[in-house]
Design goal:
This protein is mainly alpha-helical. It is built from 5 helices and 2 strands; from the N terminus they run ααααββα. It has a two-stranded antiparallel sheet with strand order 1-2. The chain is rod-shaped.
Length: 103
Amino acid sequence: MSEHNRIRPAEQLDEETRELVFTTGMQTRVLDRLQRPERWWQREVRIHVPTALAAVVLCLGLAWWRLDLPMPDNPAAAREPALIALQSGIFVESELDRMMEGE
């Protein structure tokens, strides 16, 4: 019974492809295409995702490491403006300096 199942698809395939003819001209064209060198833009490119991800992370890490940003001596002072309390109120140091220079 298993031999009967194996033969049946082969016979069906032979029956379906009986009208198809592979001429020598077709064979020549196929062989010419196979022997012709591929152009660089027609090649298939396969990218291994873990390797590509590692390369991107490495490039971003190197760019961040090589980035030369000036670091302030006192980071807290660089973030918050200096406040000065007087009897008349609380002022930002830079604004108070401008007011003093104007007098």
